[in-house]
Amino acid sequence: MENIIANSFKIGSSNDALTLNVIRRQGPLSRVEISKLTGLTPPTVTNITTKLLDLSLIVEDRIGESSGGRRPLLLKINSLLATVIVVYIRSEKMIGYVIDPEFQIQLEDSRNIKGKKEDEILKMLLDIISDCRKKAAVPVLAVGVVVRGPVRRKDGIAVFVPNIGWRNTPLKEIIEEHIGLPAFIENDVKALSNGEYYYGSVKDANSMILLKVSHGIGGGIIFNGSLYRGVNDSAGEVGHTTIDIAGPICSCGNYGCLEALASEKALVDAVAKAIKEGQSSIICDLVNGDLEDLTPEVIYEAADAGDELGIRMLGQVARYLGIGIANLVNTFNPEIFIIGGGIVRGRQYIEDIVRQTVTDRSFESSSDVLEINFLTTTTENTLKGVADIVFAEVTESIWLGQR
Fold first, then answer.
1. What's this protein's function (predicted)?
2. Residue 197: inside a domain, yes or no?
């Protein structure tokens, strides 16, 4: 099947790849809809889709609704065409998935990485990819790996993965050498941003910024329907923009970064500091007096019970978060801003403050047209986002004859 795809695109054109990706992302579609979405003429779309049907890259799905004339035949990607392996490396788990072009998970393999050394986790990564490939019922085209921290995507290098300790690890080279499949390495927030843009709540928007606020803060920026990555794939590290030069030290070594003031870690640090300074809170009872056991979840639980300190510290985090968002709104003027990650658990305590701060601190011409949304789930669209990137990259690289 892989050879069929390769032969198709080596003798085809970029319009073939464009058409296939549009059908994969937005199908089932009629030929008229494909023409509108791609900007290709109807005869060109007919010629390309006929070729793709002959090669079984796409299939006829069903008859669509009429808009006044003949009811159109809808086309979609062939879900039996091929699969990709996605490995999502989280805080304490590594989960391997086999995913088809319609983003259905064919199988899942989860393993615990807590307490494991860097080399052990790397071996586990190769093992999980190998096992998923052996168990896959449909040929696997490529591998996508999702990690936290900055990534040099073109080289496939994980610059720094904070929960593991990997630094400048050439994951792409290692996977391709040991597994023999094309590998693509992606930052988790960029993967989530891509998935949310194409398959989530964002509809008919050309620009979007997504901020994932959990232990740290990362961002994904989309303009004209594509991820903006920057010259060296570093765009989106908004957690390390300076909010207060006299603020606390950040994990990056600078002082007063947004991450040091508005992340869940910052929330925990602020609450712990306040309690040590003598401020009363039921949080002490919830952790049995041991602040080493303090987590964001404990603070949200205390706030839900009416704890004044927990609610006040959430408000403090919200103000800093609002300042960071206002800076981004003034800089990029996006249509939609999405806040995701663990901080959304405290939405009822932060939303009004975030919105008001953004309104107060950004230009009216930007904030008046801005839509702010909160994202409650992230895993599904992270997987869709990275799988989409892998399928698109494979399609393009085959067309270019780079495989």
1. Transcriptional repressor of xylose-utilizing enzymes.
2. no
Distance of CA 365 to the CA centre of its chain: 28
Prediction pTM value: 0.88
Confidence band for 66, pLDDT divided at 50, 70 and 90:
low
236 and 187 in a single domain? The answer is no
Q: Are 362 and 329 in contact (CB under 8 A)?
A: yes
For residue 71, what pLDDT is reported? 82
3-class state of residue 316 by DSSP:
helix
Asked whether residue 5 is domain-assigned, the answer is: no
Coil vs helix vs strand at 79: coil
Distance, CA of 384 to CA of 389 (rounded, Å) = 9
CATH of the domain at 175: 3.30.420.40
Q: Are 136 and 98 in contact (CB under 8 A)?
A: yes
First to last CA, the chain: 15
| Closest to 283 (Cα-Cα) out of 261, 256, 314 | 314
Number of domains in the chain: 3
- Name the one residue in this structure whose structure tokens are 């870690």: 265
CA distances from 75 to 55, 82, 99 (A): 14, 17, 20
For residues 224 and 328, state if they share a domain.
Answer: yes
| Contact (Cβ atoms closer than 8 angstroms) between residue 91 and residue 164 | no
Residue 7 has pLDDT above 70, yes or no: no
What does the pLDDT look like over 32-58, one tens digit per residue? 999 999 999 999 999 999 999 998 889
Q: Which domain holds residue 146?
A: 83-192+380-398
Residues 346 and 289 in one domain: yes
Cβ atoms of residues 262 and 320 within 8 Å: yes
**Is 206 in the same domain as 299?**
yes
Nearest-angstrom CA–CA distance, 173 and 210: 29
Strand 207-213 with 151-152, pairing: unpaired
Q: For residues 97 and 120, state if they share a domain.
A: yes
Count of CB atoms situated within 10 Å of the CB of 115: 7
User: How many other β-carbons are positioned within 10 Å of the β-carbon of residue 395?
Assistant: 21
* Claim to verify: residue 49 and residue 174 sit in the same structural domain: no
CATH number of the domain that residue 21 is part of? 1.10.10.10
Residue-wise pLDDT tens digits, 88-111: 999 889 999 999 999 999 999 999
Q: What confidence tier does 311 reach under pLDDT thresholds 50, 70, 90?
A: very high
Q: Tens of pLDDT along 188-223?
A: 999 999 999 988 878 778 899 999 999 999 999 998
